[in-house]
Specification:
Shape: globular
Bound molecules: heme C
Enzyme class: oxidoreductase
Radius of gyration: 21 Å
Mean pLDDT: 81
Protein name: Trimethylamine N-oxide reductase, c-type cytochrome subunit
Number of helices: 6
InterPro entries: Cyt_c-like_dom_sf (IPR036909)
Keywords: Oxidoreductase
Distance between the termini: 42 Å
Order of helices and strands: HEEEEEEEHEEEHHHH
Structural class: alpha+beta
Helix content: 25-40%
GO molecular function: electron transfer activity; heme binding; trimethylamine-N-oxide reductase (cytochrome c) activity
Number of domains: 2
Number of strands: 10
Largest sheet: 6 strands, antiparallel
Low-confidence stretches: 1-8, 204-243, 245-258
């Protein structure tokens, strides 16, 4: 029984080492340690950074089971240890030690008009092993889509990916984590999937995200349940949750369920 239950959970979609070749794009499936020098891999030098699930890296060269990887991204000037995938968005493909941060090649800073923050395009070269990569980004998203649907549709209708911005998905996933049995790597990969398909990064909507003005009166306050959650009442497994929501609504004086 238990064996079956464990087996029912698909393994993360990693490509076999034999499928990984030089000069190719290789999305990262699960957190991977990186070093500045090939000799650091498997040695006594602690890791000098981490690539995180969903990161897109290019393999510059393969030397046995060691890979030279190039990562491009954006950084905020005041946070040199964090790499973001896109300017102004909190999708994080890597975290860097001071040693790696010092080697990052920086381009010309650009200011985000809606926040005034300064962002710098960056590129870095790192070494890692052949594990935890996939040669096809779509395979990552197919796996994530399936896990998302299985883990997140049990209690309420599934949230549309484009309902939230990449930043909002961080908070939503954090608040729902307690309801899931995701490992850290699954959690991060599914978050990356949702962020890459979110309102501002994946929905085909370009340009800055429209910010809604804060509601000023109770009447203007939006109902706590977004429209896509209206299927809750027809889902019997969700009844206890709905009762909880109704209680929350009563105590918080929010609009009653329609
Ligand atoms: C065990 C039941 C359960 C599961 C599984 C579950 N949820 Fe929820 N969800 C709830 C409840 C209860 C609420 C009401 C608010 C709360 O308790 O935080 C909610 C509210 C939400 C909301 C609206 C509130 C907000 O934060 O904007 C979103 C979006 C959401 N869930 C997404 C998800 C996602 C994504 C997953 C999978 C990672 C998930 N849910 C899995 C029970 C569940």
């Amino acid at each position: 029984m238990l064996k079956n239950a464990v087996q029912a959970k698909p393994n993360l979609p990693t490509s076999p080492a034999s499928a990984i070749s030089g000069d190719a794009q290789a999305p990262v499936v699960a957190a991977k340690n990186v070093w500045l020098e090939a000799s650091g891999i498997g040695g006594s030098t602690p890791e000098q950074g981490k690539l995180l699930g969903g990161a897109q890296v290019r393999i510059a060269q393969r030397d046995g089971d060691k890979l030279q990887l190039v990562l491009k991204g954006w950084q905020m000037e005041e946070a040199p240890s964090i790499v973001c995938q896109a300017k102004g968005h909190q999708v994080m493909p890597a975290v860097l030690s001071d040693a790696v941060a010092a080697t990052v090649q920086r381009g010309t800073p650009e200011t985000e008009p809606d926040t005034g923050q300064s962002w710098v395009p960056v590129e870095m070269t790192l070494w890692s092993n052949v594990s935890d990569l996939n040669t096809n980004r779509q395979a990552l998203w197919d796996y994530s889509k399936d896990s998302y649907q299985k883990a997140c549709a049990g209690c309420h209708v599934l949230a549309q990916k484009t309902h939230f911005t990449a930043k909002q998905w961080i908070g939503t996933m954090k608040s729902m984590k307690r309801f899931t049995s995701f490992t850290d790597d699954e959690y991060r990969l599914i978050q990356a999937y949702l962020q890459n398909h979110s309102k501002d990064l994946g929905g085909g909507i370009k340009g800055p995200v429209q910010r809604l003005a804060a509601p000023t009166t109770a009447r203007q306050r939006p109902p706590i349940l977004p429209s896509w959650l209206s299927g809750w009442r027809s889902n019997s497994r969700a009844r206890p949750c709905v009762a909880r929501l109704q209680a929350m609504r009563t105590t918080q004086g929010l609009v009653a369920l329609q």
